[in-house]
Write a structure and sequence with these properties.
- 52% of the residues lie in helices and 4% in strands.
- By secondary structure, the chain is mainly alpha-helical.
- It folds into two domains: 28-95, Muramoyl-pentapeptide Carboxypeptidase, domain 1 (Orthogonal Bundle), CATH 1.10.101.10; 100-214, Arc Repressor Mutant, subunit A.
- A three-stranded antiparallel β-sheet has the order 1-3-2, with helices on one face.
- Strand 2 and strand 3 form a beta hairpin.
- The relative contact order is 0.12.
Length: 215
């Protein structure tokens, strides 16, 4: 009987440990620590969060996370799990840090969402603009940060970032990551036929590829 009781206690302890591990993989209201600070920094950088970067997941952080999730086609539950963390480019305890494979896939998604009907060179150019922004001190310093910066890309705003990219987009992403920059350092691009921003239209155009002007 004692052995059965000990076995039952061990089983209960293992279940509790597993539950704690699962919950630890998510960051939610009431969480504290460096990961919360990273989340707050990203959200503040992208314009979703205006509070202090204090590492405390309070009501302000909760509202900012929900806003980010809604904007990026994610379940707006205010919980930073694996999907939301990946969109932010943040590693959780059970999630690996963003890798080059993840960078390729994210770049391919923005290429496919923004330029899937464009010439191949133009698709590489879209990825190059993202990478040029990563290098610029005026923009976030990660690929995820640049792509998900509030209002930066129409494909994020209208949800096309969530479409599965084709092989051409993946290949274009790899070419850009390997150093091909058809834009020679451009930080912006737009479609002259659809653009409405006076500021963007006022930028000096350095080259045109397909339907996009790069500046």
């Amino acid at each position: 009987m004692k052995l059965k009781r000990i076995a039952a206690l061990l089983a209960a302890a293992l279940l509790l440990f597993a539950a704690l591990c699962v919950s630890a993989a998510n960051i939610s209201y009431g969480s504290r620590g460096d990961t919360v600070k990273k989340i707050q920094q990203r959200l503040k950088q992208w314009g979703y969060y205006t509070g202090s970067v204090d590492g405390i997941f309070g009501s302000g952080t909760l509202a900012a996370v929900k806003s980010f999730q809604r904007k990026n086609g994610l379940k707006a539950d205010g919980i930073v799990g694996k999907q939301t963390a990946a969109a932010m480019g943040i590693a959780l305890s059970e999630a690996p840090a963003q890798t080059s494979t993840g960078d390729v896939w994210l770049l391919a998604r923005i290429i496919y969402g923004e330029a899937r009907g464009e010439p191949y060179k133009g698709q590489v150019a879209i990825a190059a603009v993202v990478l040029n922004r990563v290098k610029s001190p005026s923009f976030p310093n990660t690929i995820a940060g640049v792509i998900y910066q509030k209002g930066a890309f129409d494909a994020v705003s209208d949800g096309q970032i969530n479409l599965a990219p084709n092989e051409t987009a993946v290949r274009a992403a790899r070419d850009a990551l390997n150093g091909w920059d058809p834009t020679n350092g451009c930080l912006f691009y737009y479609n002259p036929a659809t653009a409405t921003s006076r500021w963007m239209l006022s930028r000096p155009v350095l080259l045109r590829i397909g339907s996009h002007a790069f500046c």
